[in-house]
Design brief:
This protein has about 800 residues and is of the alpha/beta class. It is globular and about 135 Å long.
Length: about 800
């Protein structure tokens, strides 16, 4: 059974609609169909979880990342994949109550489960090699927001000022403001009405801070609620709309939230970053399971609102594509997209349903309650997986919704089929197919142990089944970048390291060293709370550089800021030993802050000739080591953008390969479809010819038999005439036999030609299979674009005094 095909998810085997018997025909679901979203509906025990797990497994094998929201705790089973299928692999995860019910000890029950999984997989054409392929294709990570049982997630990033992609899009910014305010009010148990004064005030505070480039914290919100930066709401005075005593109640509620010990768990862990949830640092896809079964309803609504808003923001930053880029799977939709109410999760879900398709992001939404679905909102869903339903009312409600949302016409047949569905059997109504198909779900590769407890989630991490997080690619990954903080745990800032270490701990003097007038000086501004700061000297070079390459289609202007320690010796400035971008040039002051002490200036030459030499060396460094380093992928011949990290570039190359693969598959299938249609017409013609010739032969045989019988019953003359006629008809019948044989030969030849065409298509598809690369397996080259002297404009070259404060025996930036 050939189910390993490009861009096709093996979900099960087709079932005959009349008697619901399972055939050997695999049900292959085109991955690109999922860009129009999917809905899975079925009662408890219908097999929804198995279908969802199978869908996620197929996506992972195909290199498509999945963000799986798990309200019930079942999807953590995706981490339970055991290629060796040994009893000891299953033992820690078996249900002890089920073992007791079966009347055997735990070890025997684990052995039975292992054998059951092995035989179940074999019956569906799967083996240990496919499980290993699944494990190698994607990393499964289990996150538990608000808990340390799995990987915790910090939600504080959601209050940070968004990037340019959101700030420059008024609609996206409005959605982010509304979602953040709504989620916070839901967590406080207050009315999240967007027209309510609490919502308006919180949105205004966030908007003011973000537009000023400032991050917000809960403490900042509390202070802002007490003393808002605005005096009006609309055209009315603030105190009239929202009196101070009422604002104090909101501030107290926020303060109680901040003071609650349970809230601390929301501030720990990895930041809520969709890119990191979908991909590892090297671009390898991830299956991130977000388990929220331990949260209260208010906490679920709060977190999911923030998460879905982040997904919307991330989606809109992607390039348009018709290929599937990522999947967002929700295992139980109840309460998040109701037909009448407006919970805070509904708006981002509607946005994704309407817009995510253009960016290759597919939603798969599962529910057991058809009444809870907003079918009008789900009109964008192209695939409906319908399983066994509990009542006739559920069936009728689903059919009505399906008719209104997808335009389904043959609902009577659908109703009859759905009413007879057994467990693990679904009707797939796909707008991309000509008619619905019934299928039985395949055996999943993950061990379905049931909802995982908090102890089991901790056990997963301690057992090493779930891989640990990689490097933080928010700050690393650009070509040629080197951040010593990633390798040196004691690193603070290398800029004044030598100067500080050679200076006594008591502050090294106080007055500013006197330098010649031709040495330009700038000064960092100490933080207000940095009492006792001391200025340390560095040499600062600032230049605007233009990088140009017709070969790589690069035209890029960039400001280069380089800070280097002055060292005593024949070469006082070694630009290669400096740091990039460690100083905000625009924030430097022309004069020092009064009262700030100065460290000693190293004994280096600062005459005009030496300072000119600094400039010469800076220009030389910019033209050589300071060249723009980019990545290049030989297969696609793509070159990274100057502001693109290695992970982002790997993902772009892999997706370009996927798009080329999908386009190649469609082109190949279209070409073979045309040839196949021609052969099918010949087969039909040959089948008709065989039937016609066979019918004609049978008719002559009957006529000849009738003539002979009639002659035998007549006179002598009649017998003679009958024999003559029979001989003549026998000769004609002999020719008819030859005609039948030739028609059958033409039919056999056409069928053989069809089989040869299918084999040829399979071989050509196998060639395309080799192009299905994963991001982490790409071999990248480094290309450099060197500027000429004409491309360099030095804006500053001189001494910069940076403030540091002493923390015990160490100096920290101040």
């Amino acid at each position: 059974m050939d189910f390993e095909q490009l861009g096709a998810f093996y979900l099960g085997r087709e079932v005959k609609p009349d008697d619901l018997s399972v055939t050997e025909q695999p049900l292959l679901y085109d991955s690109s169909d999922l860009t129009t979203h999917a809905v899975i509906v079925g009662m408890t025990g219908s097999g929804k979880t198995g279908l969802g797990v199978g869908l996620i497994e197929e996506a992972a094998i195909d290199g498509i990342p999945v963000l799986a929201i798990d309200p019930k705790g079942d999807l953590g089973n995706l981490a339970l994949t055991f290629p060796r299928l040994r009893a000891e692999d299953f033992a820690p995860w078996i249900d002890q109550r089920e073992a007791e019910k079966s009347g055997v000890d735990a070890a025997t029950y684990a052995a039975k489960q292992a054998e059951n999984w092995r035989s179940g997989l074999e019956s569906w054409g799967q083996g240990p090699d496919r499980i290993e392929r699944l494990r190698q294709a994607a990393t499964v990570s289990i996150y538990t927001p608000g808990s340390s049982a799995g990987r915790p997630i910090s939600v504080l990033r959601s209050f940070a000022a968004p990037g340019p992609a959101i700030m420059n899009d008024p609609d996206l910014l409005s959605d982010r403001l509304s979602a953040t305010a709504t989620g916070m009010l839901a967590l406080l148990g207050q009315d999240p009405d967007p027209l309510g004064r609490e919502h308006i005030l919180l949105s205004t505070l966030l908007d003011n801070a973000w537009r000023a480039g400032r991050d917000m914290s809960i403490a900042d919100l509390i202070r802002g609620v007490q003393e808002p930066p605005v005096r009006q709401i609309g055209v009315m005075d603030l105190d009239t709309v929202f009196p101070a005593k009422d604002r104090l109640k909101l501030a107290m509620a926020l303060n109680a939230l901040l003071a609650a010990p349970s809230f601390e768990s929301w501030t720990r862990g990895e930041p809520l970053d969709v890119q990191n949830l979908l991909y590892e640092s090297n671009g390898k896809p991830r299956v991130s399971v977000i388990t929220i079964s331990h949260l209260s309803d208010a906490e679920r609504m709060f977190f999911l609102t923030l998460l879905l808003s982040e997904v919307v923001a991330w989606t809109r930053t992607q390039t348009g594509t018709s290929s599937l880029r990522a999947i967002v799977y929700i295992d139980e939709l109840f309460g998040f997209l109701p037909p009448v109410a407006e919970p805070p999760t509904k708006r981002p879900l509607l946005t994704l349903l309407k817009q995510a398709r253009a960016f290759g992001v597919g939603l798969a939404l599962s529910t057991q309650n058809p009444i809870d679905l907003d079918y009008k909102a789900l009109s964008n869903a192209g695939s409906w997986f319908i399983g066994r339903l509990q009542t006739e009312r559920d069936v009728n409600r689903l059919i009505d919704g399906l008719r209104s949302s997808t335009g389904a016409t043959d609902t009577a047949t659908l109703t009859g089929t759905i009413a007879r569905l057994p467990k693990r059997t679904f009707v797939l109504h796909n707008v991309h197919d000509s008619q619905p198909v019934v299928f039985q779900t395949r055996w999943v590769m993950s061990y379905l142990a049931g909802p995982l407890s908090r102890d089991q989630l901790r056990q997963l991490s301690s057992a090493g089944i779930e891989e640990s997080p990689g490097v933080d690619w928010q700050t690393a990954g650009t070509p040629g970048a080197h951040d010593p903080a990633h390798t040196n745990p004691d690193y603070t800032s290398s800029t004044p390291a030598a100067a500080i270490s050679s200076t006594s701990n008591d502050g090294a003097g106080g007055s500013q060293p006197i330098l010649p007038p031709h040495v330009t000086q700038l000064y960092g501004v100490p933080r207000s709370e940095a009492a006792g700061a001391t200025y340390f000297p560095s040499i600062l070079g600032v230049a605007d550089v233009h990088y140009s390459s017709k070969t790589h289609n690069i035209e890029h202007g960039q400001r280069v800021i380089r800070v280097v320690e002055p060292v005593e010796g024949p070469v006082p400035v070694v630009w290669a030993d400096g740091e990039d971008g460690s100083v905000e040039f625009e924030s430097l002051a022309q004069r020092p802050v009064p009262g700030t002490a100065f460290a000693d200036m190293p004994a280096i030459s600062v005459d005009a000739k030496s300072v000119k030499e600094w400039s010469t060396l800076f220009n030389r460094w910019l033209r050589t080591d300071g060249a723009l380093a980019l990545f290049r992928e030989p297969g696609t011949k793509l070159v990274s953008r100057p502001d693109e990290s290695e992970r982002e570039f790997r993902l772009r190359c892999a997706h370009a390969t996927r798009e080329a693969r999908d386009a190649g598959i469609e082109k190949l299938r279209a070409r073979y479809r045309s040839r196949g249609d021609t052969i099918d017409r010949r087969i039909l013609t040959a089948q008709q010819a065989v039937g016609r010739e066979q019918q004609q032969l049978n008719t002559r045989a009957v006529d000849m038999a009738g003539s002979i019988l009639g002659g035998l019953l007549g006179g002598r003359r009649t017998v003679r005439s009958t024999i003559t006629t029979a001989v003549r008809k026998g000769s004609t019948a002999s020719r008819d036999v030859g005609d039948v044989q030739r028609a059958k030969e033409r039919l056999a030849a056409a069928l053989q030609e069809k089989a040869a065409l299918e084999d040829e298509l399979t071989r050509e598809l196998a060639v395309l299979q080799d192009s299905n690369v994963h991001p982490e397996s790409l071999v990248l080259e480094t290309v450099t674009i060197k500027p000429t002297s004409r491309d360099i404009a030095v804006r500053f070259l001189g001494i910069v005094w940076l403030p540091y404060v002493q923390d015990g025996a160490r100096w920290q930036p101040g």
